[in-house]
Amino acid sequence: MDKNTIIGFVLIAIVVFGFSWYSQPSEEEQAAFIEAARQDSINRAEAQAAEMAQAAEKARKLAQEANDSSALFFEARNAPAQDVKLSNGLIDLTLSTRGATVKSARLANFNDQESKPVRLIRNGKNGMTFCFAGKQDNLETGDFTFKTVAKTGKSVTMRLGDEQCGLDISYTLNDDSYLVNVDIQAHNMGKVLLPNSGIATNWYYVAAQQEKGFDFEDRYTALTFKKKGGGVDNLSASGENDETTEDDIDWVAFKNQFFSYVLISQDGFNSGAELSSKTCRKGSGDLKEYHAQLSSSFDVSGRKATKMQMYIGPNDFHLLKAHNSMTFQKDDADLEKLVDLGWPLFRWINRWIILPLFDFLTGFGLNMGIVLLLLTIIVKALVYPTTKKSFLSSARMRVLKPQVDALSAKYPRQEDAMKKQAEMMQLYKEYGVSPMGGCLPMLIQAPIWIALFNFVPNAIELRGQSFLWAKDLSSYDELISWDTDLWLIGDHLSIFCILFSLTNIVNTWISMRQQQNQMSSEQASQMKMMQYMMYIMPLMFFFMFNNYSSGLCYYYFLSGLTSILIMWYLRKTTDDDKLLAKLEAYREAHKNDARKPSGMAARLAALQEQMEQQKKK
Length: 617
Fold this sequence. Notes:
Elements: H1 3-23, H2 27-66, H3 69-72, H4 74-77, E1 83-87, E2 91-96, E3 101-111, E4 117-121, E5 126-132, E6 139-140, E7 147-151, E8 155-161, E9 166-173, E10 179-187, E11 199-208, H5 214-219, E12 223-227, E13 232-234, E14 240-244, E15 249-255, E16 259-269, E17 274-279, E18 286-296, E19 306-314, H6 317-324, H7 344-362, H8 368-382, H9 384-399, H10 401-410, H11 417-430, H12 439-455, E20 480-486, E21 490-493, H13 495-518, H14 521-526, H15 528-534, H16 536-545, H17 550-573, H18 576-589, H19 599-616
Antiparallel strand pairs: 1-2, 2-3, 3-4, 5-6, 5-11, 7-8, 8-9, 9-10, 10-19, 11-18, 12-13, 12-15, 14-17, 15-16, 16-19, 17-18, 20-21
């Protein structure tokens, strides 16, 4: 590049920069330009807002003319949602103005596994939408954002539309209660809704795993409902289940083992309610996925509000029973049946025997392990007379074993089995011994044993209570655990379950010994295989109960241990010679009464005689 070219570029640059500097506006001119641009932006925004307002007003007028709810509440469709918080010291409730529905709920007096308040309702894991049949289209509350028109610390009223045409949904927390009152009231909604619209409630809820053991908690987590004027029923707790009800129902409960989320209707939900539940994947943190589609009455004119209630709280028998009087159905609500105390017979035993004893013992403020120990002792004391009667019946047959062996020697042939059995029955009659005497008392004890199988896992008082190495008596104890989930066992060994199984083996051995001592040698030989099979049951109990609550295994261990001690005491205090002398004295005193066979002995003798006559022919 030559000298003249370089000089030319320099002159051009000087001219460009000089002109830019000379033509630059002053500060006053710059401020005026910015202000003009800002005012122009404001004018455009105001014009756009005016156009939107005109469009909304036009849509409103068209909606009023066409009775179209979607257009009438157009502004509420895309409005931002807000959270509303209510609390009464027991429930911390969060509601959303989007759909005017419950978003989450925490129970202040109950902790989860992380020692934080139990979140019974979780955001994103539940939903409740009310649907109304419209003249042009259906109105679903979940499509709209409501406005908060009244609010206190324990109540809120949210509105869709206005008093000229709208819908109010109110929530009120009761003092010292787990009940939430829900009122749904229309304001001249006859413009957009059909006269007999009714309310279709679509309710969805995922029950969280609140306790340590998934399998055990899942057994007691089930969708439960009460028929109007009838009993309480539930879907199966296992697998995937659904049901369409044939009767009107008072309430539906999405139930966990120790907590429930219940929806109660004042006028009842109509028949044809569609209910379903599905077990969630283990390890997901969830237990059950529930759905309920319910229908109930609704006054579109607004003269009468549709009233519902929600129970969001623990499955405590006495607490639920106290809440009955606060519901629409009063004492007929039967909320306490959310605590599963078993089938009618076992429920009666739990309700009128076990529960009063348990309440009496817990009233002393004792550790729950001590309460279960005392409960075991009291129950064993109550059934001790039948236990003693059963033992003495076995002891009488034991001391008569020489006579029974003599009959076996007298009739060695299989063809004489009925004759031998008839004489054996006659022998027992002469000595006043009943072969069934040891069984009937055990049949009396069995219902109590089964009743406690239902009671202990449902006693919320055991939840979170520790004893010895068990950190929570409502769940399994895991003193020994590992990471791998082994088949039939899982990832732990329950020490209380092992102790229960061991005492069960010892009790089985004692029972087998008693049976052997009262059988003839031939009978004992024939029953040997059956006796060995009896030992399989304690082994099965170990695999069945390893995931059960430590409180239940602890109770069964105590029950088995006390049974062993009672059997030892009775055997120690029973003199076989004195017992045989009493039997001989009875035989002597009733020898004239026992000459002619009767009862089973008579029937066997008649059958034997009939068979012999047929052989002669």
